[in-house]
Design brief:
Helices cover 3% and strands 52% of the residues. It is built from 1 helix and 31 strands. The strands form 8 sheets. An 8-stranded mixed sheet has the order 25-26-27-28-10-31-30-29. The protein starts with a helix and ends with a strand.
């Protein structure tokens, strides 16, 4: 475990979660019995929800909620056992609505649910090396029918293009208005979805022609970073540990997961790629990729790509950013911002 913990810090730049994350009840009538709470829990653990009643009120019933979802009701002041295996990783906001003597009152608290998975250290093999445009501040990379699509950032230099990855020949390119900082892309049902950084604006293009079909506004107050899809839904990062799940028809966020490696959340996850049921994501300013379980946010693998730098003509600020999976070859393509090369690799344990 010590080896893995060191890898988490070196490769992923983890910010350790605050273990003092309990919130006191919002009133003086009832509070959660937080003295029996642990700082962190794992999915196999159970938690007893119990209310303290210092004023000896006559309690009729208590309705318990976790993250605003009702999880149970008790008669009187009895404990409610809560299994955590079906909860998403991250902070669990607890609420108790206490009914007493013809009145009601709330109590709140918070605990943190972390991953019980020890990520595996992955290795890679370079299959091929291809040219990459050093003027491309890469933000998104994805294959569509054996053609590579790429989006770039920086205001006045942002575009989306499709090209021959073997030669670098550009087939088509659409430049963004200079007020936009382009970000991640993904392609679903013959549509290209593109994000912008802080402008809270997204674009939808026809994948064949790159004709702009729609402009949409984010329905959450978040930034736009990386994008991918699972064949049905879109997924988006926002510079935090969250991966948002989006309805492609409405562009509305319908859910999210929090990414954790062991007992630590991974912030600043960026470019995304859906590969054989897992989400591959690079971490901003780190030459590493985390392999994430999309159902719960647990990091299951870590891929250290720092060795690629020895064959590049780049600076430390030219960070890894760009993951594309080619289903025909079953290989992964990776590059970075202003890198002069793109690498085709295979990954194994």
């Amino acid at each position: 475990m010590k080896k893995h913990n060191l890898l988490y810090v070196i490769l992923l730049g983890i910010t350790v979660s605050n273990c003092g994350g309990k919130k006191k009840g919002e009133n003086s009538i009832f509070t959660f019995n937080s003295a029996q709470f642990s700082a962190q829990y794992q999915p196999q653990n159970k938690l007893d929800l119990e209310i303290l009643n210092p004023n000896s009120k006559e309690i009729d019933s208590i309705v318990y909620f976790v993250n605003d979802i009702k999880v149970g009701t008790t008669k009187g002041n009895t404990k409610l056992p809560l299994e955590l295996k079906n909860q998403k990783l991250g902070y669990q906001n607890l609420k108790a609505l206490v009914y007493f003597e013809g009145d009601n009152s709330e109590a709140t608290a918070r605990v943190e649910l972390v991953s019980n998975v020890s990520p595996k250290l992955l290795k890679y093999k370079i299959v091929n090396t291809y040219p990459h445009d050093t003027n491309s501040f890469t933000e998104g990379l994805e294959f569509y029918k054996d053609t590579l699509y790429e989006s770039t950032g920086l205001k006045g230099k942002s575009y989306i293009r499709k090209y021959d990855y073997k030669t670098g020949k550009v087939f088509q390119q659409v430049d963004l208005d200079s007020k936009y900082f382009g970000e991640g892309i993904t392609i679903l049902n013959d549509k290209v979805y593109q994000l912008t950084w802080q402008e809270k604006t997204g674009f939808i293009y026809d994948a064949k022609t790159l004709k702009l079909e729609k402009t949409f506004t984010y329905d959450k107050d978040i930034e736009g970073w990386g994008m991918t899809n699972d064949g049905t839904h879109l997924y988006q990062t926002d510079k935090t540990e969250k991966i948002w799940k989006m309805d492609p028809a409405t562009q509305k966020m319908i859910d999210y997961i929090n990414v954790y490696a062991g007992n630590s959340k991974i912030k600043a996850i960026n470019e995304l790629e859906w590969i054989e049921g897992k989400i591959y994501t690079n971490v901003w300013m780190k030459d590493a990729i985390a392999v994430v379980n999309p159902s719960n946010g647990a990091v299951e693998g870590i891929l250290d790509l720092s060795g690629l730098r020895k064959s590049l003509k780049v600076t430390l600020d030219d960070v890894l950013n760009g993951i594309a999976y080619n289903p025909k070859t079953k290989t992964i393509f990776v590059t970075g911002k202003n890198w002069d090369k793109m690498f085709e690799i295979t990954v194994s344990e």
